[in-house]
């Protein structure tokens, strides 16, 4: 379907009332500023929300608006109820026609994850767009609160945001004086990739008293060489895996028995999905990593 035809289709839908403009709503507008710095105001709580990344899906459910979500994308797998959503592509390519057929009144996007050209098209078609991508712990709570404001689920959303905020503060206090321990987080084996301290995983390491050996790398997820890791000689190596189960991802380090992490058997696995997404599950993931670092300290 051509872009011009899609625009015409939406214009006709607006005229015919398929997309309700809600211009006559009695309640005040609901406004929020997204993570791209754009303000969105809507005249009534969103009732048909499309979420265009797994993280956006999870955060919208966390905001108490799960029952209002009508579309997700591939890998929108948490909470379990998200598995029942109609899918409109993946976060890098959206099936625009399938999305329009679901008549969303709010589209939650990911700042750096969705294709810009398609996002511009959806905006041109008049769909209310709200981009999120938390980069800090407070950003997670803030995203939940803003989404709940747009969805009219403030009671549930603000409570969940505060639960996460309080939980992270508790961990921060618990590990405020923890003995520093050097750590390397392996994002991917081939090519070998890690994170810097601007990445949320880097912030989790700091929270737990870990010293990220690649904290100052210029990119969020830099590629590195095994030689650089050997030179840094971390006391702990961590990586994400399905359900945190041991697999072969870290076996290649065992051929370096003099590396501190290998010599002390400090090769750890954590559940990949919770630590990789900026959602409330990051609280449980942080506790898990803190416990792993405690084990390493004891050794």
Could you characterize what this model shows?
By secondary structure, the chain is α/β, with parallel strands linked by helices. The protein has 2 domains: 3-167, Nitrogenase molybdenum iron protein domain (Rossmann fold); 177-298, Rossmann fold, CATH 3.40.50.1980. Helix content is 39%, strand content 16%. It has 11 helices and 12 strands. It has helices at 3-16, 54-65, 96-101, 116-124, 137-151, 154-174, 200-207, 226-232, 260-263, 272-276, 282-298; strands at residues 30-33, 39-42, 49-51, 69-71, 89-90, 93-94, 106-110, 129-132, 181-186, 210-212, 236-241, 267-271. The strands form 4 sheets. A 4-stranded parallel beta sheet has the order 4-3-7-8, with helices on both faces. Strands 10-9-11-12 form a 4-stranded parallel beta sheet. Helix 2 (54-65) packs across helix 5 and helix 2 crosses helix 6 (154-174). The longest helix is centred in the middle third of the chain and has 21 residues, at 154-174. The radius of gyration is 22 Å and the shape is elongated. It starts with a helix and ends with a helix.
Give a quick rundown of the structure.
The protein is elongated, with a radius of gyration of 22 Å. A hairpin with a 5-residue loop joins β1 and β2 (39-42). A four-stranded parallel β-sheet has the order 4-3-7-8, sandwiched between helices. A four-stranded parallel β-sheet has the order 10-9-11-12. The chain has a two-stranded antiparallel sheet with strand order 1-2.
Mean pLDDT: 92
The largest sheet is:
4 strands, parallel
What's the total helix number?
Answer: 11
Overall, the morphology is elongated
Given helix and strand content, the structural type is alpha/beta
Q: Could you give me the name of the CATH homologous superfamily of the largest domain?
A: Nitrogenase molybdenum iron protein domain
The CATH level-2 architecture of the largest domain is identified as: 3-Layer(aba) Sandwich
DSSP helix fraction:
25-40%
Q: Estimate what percentage of residues fall within beta strands.
A: 15-25%
Number of discrete domains: 2
Task: Please tell me how large the radius of gyration is.
Answer: 22 Å
Question: What is the N-to-C order of secondary-structure elements (H for helix, E for strand)?
Answer: HEEEHEEEHEHEHHEHEHEHEHH
The separation of the N and C termini measures 62 Å
User: Could you list the spans in which at least 5 consecutive residues all have pLDDT below 50?
Assistant: 14-25
Using the coordinates shown, work out and report the CATH topology of the largest domain: Rossmann fold
CATH class of the largest domain: Alpha Beta
């Amino acid at each position: 379907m051509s872009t011009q035809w899609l625009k015409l289709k939406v214009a006709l839908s607006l005229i015919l009332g398929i997309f309700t403009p809600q211009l006559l709503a009695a309640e005040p507008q609901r406004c929020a500023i997204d993570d791209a710095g754009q303000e969105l105001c809507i005249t009534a709580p969103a009732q048909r929300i499309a979420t265009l990344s797994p993280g956006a899906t999870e955060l919208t459910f966390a905001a108490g608006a799960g029952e209002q979500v009508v579309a997700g994308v591939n890998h929108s797998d948490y909470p379990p109820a998200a598995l029942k959503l109609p899918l409109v592509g993946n976060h890098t390519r959206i099936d625009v026609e399938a999305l329009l057929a679901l008549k969303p009144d709010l589209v939650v996007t990911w700042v750096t994850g969705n294709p810009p050209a398609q996002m511009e098209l959806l905006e041109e078609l008049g769909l209310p767009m709200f981009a999120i991508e938390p980069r800090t712990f407070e950003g997670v709570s803030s995203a939940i609160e803003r989404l709940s404001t747009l969805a009219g689920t403030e009671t549930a959303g603000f409570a969940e945001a505060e639960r996460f905020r309080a939980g992270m503060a508790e961990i921060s206090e618990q590990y405020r004086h923890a003995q520093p321990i050097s750590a390397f987080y392996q994002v991917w084996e081939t090519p070998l990739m890690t994170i810097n301290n601007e990445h949320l995983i880097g912030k989790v390491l700091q929270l737990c008293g870990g010293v990220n050996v690649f904290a100052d790398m210029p990119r969020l997820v830099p590629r590195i060489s095994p030689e650089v890791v050997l030179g840094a000689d971390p006391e702990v190596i961590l990586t994400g895996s399905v359900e945190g189960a041991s697999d072969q991802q870290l076996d290649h380090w065992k051929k370096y028995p003099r590396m501190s992490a290998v010599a002390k058997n400090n090769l750890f696995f954590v559940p990949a999905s919770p630590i990789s997404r900026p959602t409330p599950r990051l609280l449980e993931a942080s506790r898990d990593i803190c416990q792993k670092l405690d084990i390493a300290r004891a050794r």
